[in-house]
Amino acid sequence: MKDTNLTESIDAMTPQKISARHVNVHYGETHAIKDVSVDIAANTVTAFIGPSGCGKSTFLRCLNRMNDTIDTCRVTGDIRIDDEDIYDRKVDPVQLRAKIGMVFQKPNPFPKSIHDNVAYGPKIHGLARNKAEMDDIVEDALKRAALWSEVNDRLDAPGTGLSGGQQQRLCIARAIATAPEVLLMDEPCSALDPIATAQIEELIDNLRQSYSVVIVTHSMQQAARVSQKTAFFHMGSLVEFGETDRIFTAPEDPRTESYITGRIG
Ligand SMILES: Nc1ncnc2c1ncn2[C@@H]1O[C@H](COP(=O)(O)OP(=O)(O)OP(=O)(O)O)[C@@H](O)[C@H]1O
């Protein structure tokens, strides 16, 4: 993996939120992630890009132990959030996923009201002592997800009745409501139209003031628009990682260059 000295000196000044070292992932006999080491900075949007099947989603799911739910999946290596080993036996994956929220490709609101979708996580984790506190959490999360003004007069309506873009912002509000420190987004705009995509991209830019955001995207334009750091994966390996501007203007590895110029993937 390559990077410039300039980027390394910037890295040294930016606090790291997540540190992954020598991560390997197998699904049965398939070696999906090969010895990946990377640091994810705080208050930064980091994009994972690369051709289909290169392991972007698999690596993303390692960061909040979502792969634990797949029987054939085996993860080795060291992943730390704020220097805490997230694969330590003492760590409860449910608590971990409150701290490291996730938003999926297809908006997937629960078949509940808008209010109850957002209140679901805080309720499970006992974050509100009474209804007034819960209502405050719901309002704050919907505001941070830039949805409040569109839904505040119909909080009891079903979440599934919203438009696709609104549903995705509802899912972001649901993830934010448990006060996470990191937000993982797996192609969050792939099911959305261009206007809804632009709204989510603007939201992602605002979210990084409060969270570390990691986004998997097939769109290089999107990676260039929303991220400050980009990681290029190819066949399970992390080929290149660095400042997004540099990756897109002066990639160091020929595989990165081929991908961003459309010759592979
Ligand atoms: N649940 C699973 N069981 C077995 N193999 C899997 C599973 N999920 C992913 N894989 C395999 O792991 C490799 C990496 O897949 P992954 O979905 O992480 O790639 P990706 O870069 O996110 O792809 P895409 O861009 O198409 O979503 C692929 O070879 C894929 O077939």
Automatic annotation (TrEMBL):
Source taxonomy: Bacteria, Pseudomonadati, Pseudomonadota, Alphaproteobacteria, Rhodobacterales
Pfam families reported for this sequence: ABC_tran
Descriptive protein name: Phosphate ABC transporter ATP-binding protein
The ABC transporter domain, residue ranges: 18-260
PROSITE patterns documented for this protein: ABC_TRANSPORTER_1 (PS00211), ABC_TRANSPORTER_2 (PS50893)
CC terms in the record's Gene Ontology section: membrane
Entry-linked InterPro entries: AAA+_ATPase, ABC_transporter-like_ATP-bd, ABC_transporter-like_CS, P-loop_NTPase, PstB-like
Keyword set, alphabetical order: ATP-binding, Nucleotide-binding, Phosphate transport, Plasmid, Transport
SMART domains referenced in this protein's UniProt entry, alphabetically: AAA (SM00382)
One record GO biological process: phosphate ion transmembrane transport
GO molecular function: ATP binding; ATP hydrolysis activity; phosphate transmembrane transporter activity
Domain of life: Bacteria
Transmembrane residue ranges: none
